[in-house]
Amino acid sequence: MPVVDVDTDELRQLTGHDEKSDEELKEDLFALGLEYEGETEDGLLQFEFGPDRLDRLSVEGVARSLRYQYGDDRGVYVPQLNSPDWTIDVEESVPEQRPYVTGAVVRGVNMDEETLDSLIQLQEKLHATMGRKRVKGAIGIHDLVMLKGEDLGEGGGNSITYRGVDPDGERFVPLDSDAELTPGEVLEQHPTGEKYADVVADYERYPAIYDELGLFSFPPVINGRRTEVDEDSTDLFVELTGTDQWTIDKMCNIICYALSARGGTVEEVEVETPEGTLVRPDFDVDTKEVGHDRIETLLGAELEFEEVVDLFERSGLDATTNLGDEMSYDVEIPPYRVDVLHPVDLVDDVGRAYGFNTLEPRYPDVGTVGGRHDRSDLERAVRERLVGLGFEDMLNFHMTDEAMNYDGMSVAPESESDADTVLGATPPVRIVEPYSEDYTMLRTWALPSLMTVLENNTHRAYPQDLSEVGFVAHEDTEENTGVAESHRVAGVLARYDATYEDAKAKLQALCGDFGVELETPATEHPSFIDGRTAAVVVDGENVGVVGEILPEVLVGHDLELPVVAFEFELSALE
Amino acid sequence: MRLPESQVAVLEAASTDEQTVGELADETGLKPETVTRAAFDLRDDGLVAIEERTETTTTLTEEGEQYIEAGLPEVRLYRAAVDAGGDADAVPMGQVIGASELAGPEVDIALSNFARKGYGRIDSGELVVDADADPDADDEAAALAALADGEAVDDEQVLEELDRRGLVNRTESTVRSISLTDDGVTAMMEGVEVAETVDRLTPELLTSGEWRDVEFTEYNVEADAPEERGGKVHVLRQTAERVKDTLVGMGFQEMEGPHADSEFWINDCLFMPQDHPARTHWDQFALDVPPMEEIPEDLLDRVESAHREGVGDDGDGYHSPWTENVAREIDLRGHTTSLSMRYLSGFAEGELEPPQRYFSVEKVYRNDTLDATHLLEFFQIEGWVMAEDLSVRDLMGTFEEFYRQFGITDIQFKPHYNPYTEPSFELFGRHPTTGELIEIGNSGMFRPEVLEPLGVDCDVMAWGLALERLAMLVTGAEDIRDLHGTLADLDFLRNAEVIR
């Protein structure tokens, strides 16, 4: 979840509420859904929130939300936009993976250390969230004074160019460096370049933004040092590139609103693409219609029209009522909101402003009949019977590795084509790019888990009679999911005097209790001693194995006493 | 007649004359308490009679012992006064006391008893001795000496005086005297044999009737017995059963479905954009199996449309890439909401008409860091209610009722964000023992972008919670790895308290 770092002095100043203590601010922010998480090394307070209101990723955005909450502001606010002086020319050469660009000019920003820190934070947090680690959208902010645009003639203003360049086709001095590097060299030699090299890994041409003096930005990786913004910068050029126009436009709006709160005046920029001209930023107000009835049913409360309009306005929205058969509201949504996909999101805003916690809970007055599914009932009955037979019920992970599932049991995995496979030797369902080498596949049988529990408990008192009713899986392309899933009953008896008979005795008792017929014809299994191993045949169907575990398997599990074991399909007891 | 050994001994030692327990103990060589118990058993059989009387025993206190050697203080004062010539004339008290070598509290004791016993008078600081008095015949001194020699003293007045002076302790005790009854005499004449004592009651004793004649050796019933374990249902399963029972009782039907499922059912139906951070390999486990072939085509189209265009007249979609290839890839489910999607769509059990309540308590898989509170696989409690016109108040009422069953009260609903629900709430509750406010679940009303493609045209509220979190609250377990998986400590499981 996103975290925003807030300087509370800044917050008091931006909200105009000097009287609020840090504790009061924390409470007010909790009510907005921002939860206090701790402090940074620099003494900023950190707040975590759900990744919907990304317009709150800066102190300016948090202050705006608070002013609405306090009732200081109401309704939709859209900053004045000045007409464009700058143009971004988009050339045909831009990388096909990153065709979109947008931008804005902001003049007269009251820049100081705090504003600059806040701007950098907002940029980074937007990169991490909406920007999907700069893949979907990346922001570059430049000191306008340091840009020399191409003069477009009388009344035409200045232009810069977005184009694609060869990896080593151009040199520039990137931020935090003194050396002139090509974009290709930046990716190899500059720490920021190394970090974001993956984003452009499959680009043939690299994105680059030029002015009259040359390349000044290498999105989405790094800006040039020439146009670096510092505490003396007042006029800024904001550019964003990405894989989706809507996303970078919204990111741009959030940046512009934050700079506007710092005294900046936003000026439009024209984006000349081969398809046509865009005028940005796009501060158009979106409108959605919300039914009064839907608000009332979802909140379970009766509300007056005026009250609803008031709640909308206190959420930074504007609403006009539509009188008719079905009462509704046309709700205007400001351009910095990125989370309103459906009228229900506006109902949520009303609920938050109303205070969800003030609603009285009620138990829904609908009658339904409860029940468990058949396997759930069967599992419980088998588990309880096993416990009655003296087994300790175990619960093991479904993920394992090949060493534990096959090698440790002297079993070799078979390919899927083998029909009648040895229990446990079925082909594995492997995890793609496993995070841990201990969890690389799903277990094909349950006995390896029980043997591992025995191995991990050799310091505990014997006898250790363990059982598990649990999930196993193997690859099966016949299945829609490619995975055959089943549930097994498994048991081990680790006793100084354990013999085959002990295991069979338990098995007999269990099968008798469930009214099924057990036969145990001799068989062979690589985990068990020959001559002391039988197939578990229930009602004529081969469903598992029972026997004495092979000494080499015991020794491999650090066990110094005999273990007898069984495993078979749970469904056999149905 | 066969009787236990001790009873036979007492019976043989007893006569028609009364004998005390002490006397019989001396005679039989048994402990007095054994004789007493045997006597009571014999009396119950009518073979002996027991007379009880109260006896007072008198013993010397430490002070009394001292006076045996040194003499009573008043006697010593009298002798010193006589030596100083006090039998003829009054003598100064200080001089006599000095000569008597009385010290401290003895002086006061001597002076008060001197006067009481008429050994003389005390007048203006001088002692006048009564020459006729005879301290050698002092009753109290004689009684002390007799008690010291173990002789009985009958003079009750003297004994009371000594008790008052704190020179003796008097205690009352019950003395039992035992004598043979007529039946006892008859039994003796007919002959009494010793019955054998046995350690264990055996089938042979019972079937032969010998149990009537045997005496059972006594056990130390307070000693620790060997450890008894038996089996136990895993504590997490017990918690799961509690949850299932509770939900079934609240009218919920249980769902089941695949652990390995397509991203379509796990994420796309839930309106999770395909470039959502939680949909990377770092958060979920992708499986190396072929993509899912069978997904209902019309449902697939409606879900894609919801992602791209949104639903309803004023709906917007995501500005994220969406491909069918991603939807068909197979993962281990990161939540059991995939089951809810299968049921709500009608794919699992056919079309559902409201009202419905469904739940599952099943395993989910997340690529998280393993630590004391996080596992790569854990159980998720998932539940939903489908009905016309549900409100957040119904959601709150349902969850308050559920958590109340586990002693968790004071439920708070913190507005929250999920891609698949709106409104959404994180649930907080009061810990039953520590009183802390802790996060206990995530809930909300499914979005129209989730429900419309599934063909559901009423409201559905849903919630999810990790079973392990509930189990840790209920059992007080501090490290989840003790509970779940092959690292499980058998002793922890064997000693875990039963969930009730």
From TrEMBL, chain A:
Task: State a single Pfam family of this protein.
Answer: B5
Tell me the domain of life. Archaea
Q: Name the EC number(s).
A: 6.1.1.20
Coarse class of the primary localization is cytoplasm
Instruction: Provide the protein's localization.
Output: Cytoplasm
Q: Where is this region: Disordered?
A: 1-22
Q: Which controlled-vocabulary keywords does the entry list? A: Aminoacyl-tRNA synthetase, ATP-binding, Cytoplasm, Ligase, Magnesium, Metal-binding, Nucleotide-binding, Protein biosynthesis
Task: Give the Gene Ontology MF terms in alphabetical order.
Answer: ATP binding; magnesium ion binding; phenylalanine-tRNA ligase activity; RNA binding
Required co-factor(s) are: Mg(2+)
Its GO CC terms are: phenylalanine-tRNA ligase complex
Q: Where is the B5 domain?
A: 283-361
Q: Which reaction does it catalyse?
A: tRNA(Phe) + L-phenylalanine + ATP = L-phenylalanyl-tRNA(Phe) + AMP + diphosphate + H(+)
Task: Enumerate the residues binding Mg(2+).
Answer: 339, 345, 348-349
Q: Which GO terms describe its biological process?
A: phenylalanyl-tRNA aminoacylation
Record has ATP-binding as a keyword: yes
Q: How does it assemble?
A: Tetramer of two alpha and two beta subunits.
Q: Which family does it belong to?
A: Belongs to the phenylalanyl-tRNA synthetase beta subunit family. Type 2 subfamily.
Query: Could you tell me what this protein is called?
Result: Phenylalanine--tRNA ligase beta subunit
Which species expresses this protein natively?
Haloprofundus marisrubri
Q: Gene encoding this polypeptide?
A: pheT
From TrEMBL, chain B:
Needed co-factor(s): Mg(2+)
Q: Where does L-phenylalanine bind?
A: 337, 380-382, 420, 446
Domain of life according to the entry: Archaea
Q: What class of enzyme is it?
A: ligase
Where along this sequence does the record place binding of Mg(2+)?
422
The biological process GO terms on file are:
phenylalanyl-tRNA aminoacylation
Q: Which SUPFAM superfamilies match?
A: Class II aaRS and biotin synthetases (SSF55681), Winged helix' DNA-binding domain (SSF46785)
- Which Enzyme Commission numbers does its entry carry? 6.1.1.20
Q: How is the cofactor bound?
A: Binds 2 magnesium ions per tetramer.
Instruction: Give residue ranges for domain Aminoacyl-transfer RNA synthetases class-II family profile.
Output: 243-488
Q: Which Pfam families match?
A: tRNA-synt_2d
Key words of the record: Aminoacyl-tRNA synthetase, ATP-binding, Cytoplasm, Ligase, Magnesium, Metal-binding, Nucleotide-binding, Protein biosynthesis
List the Gene3D superfamilies hit by this protein, alphabetically. Bira Bifunctional Protein, Domain 2, Winged helix-like DNA-binding domain superfamily/Winged helix DNA-binding domain
Reactions listed under catalytic activity:
tRNA(Phe) + L-phenylalanine + ATP = L-phenylalanyl-tRNA(Phe) + AMP + diphosphate + H(+)
Q: Which family does it belong to?
A: Belongs to the class-II aminoacyl-tRNA synthetase family. Phe-tRNA synthetase alpha subunit type 2 subfamily.
> Quaternary structure?
Tetramer of two alpha and two beta subunits.
- The identity of this protein, by name, is Phenylalanine--tRNA ligase alpha subunit
